[in-house]
Design a protein that fits this description.
Blueprint lengths: L7 H9 L10 H13 L16 H17 L1
Helix pairs in contact: 1-3, 2-3
């Protein structure tokens, strides 16, 4: 079985068609990535109890990694 490594910023660059314009830890970067995910059909809603502990950037990274996995399979 093949193995692929996913790097979130590379995945966002592929999704956006160019590198992200803003660092992911900034307000603008958060919204840039959320918009890219929404445009790809991924809407992040309430993630329950995990949301109390997860960093927003970690949630974005997980979402784009899932997008990459779906593209590869």
């Amino acid at each position: 079985m093949p193995v692929w490594e996913v790097h979130p910023e590379v995945s966002f660059a592929v999704m956006l068609g160019h590198p992200a314009e803003h660092p992911k830890l900034t307000w603008s970067g958060l919204h840039e990535r959320l918009e890219a995910l929404r445009d790809a059909g991924i809407v992040i809603g309430d993630i329950g109890a995990a949301g109390a502990m997860a960093g927003a950037d970690d949630v974005l990274d997980a979402a784009v990694a899932a997008w990459s996995a779906a593209r590869l399979y």
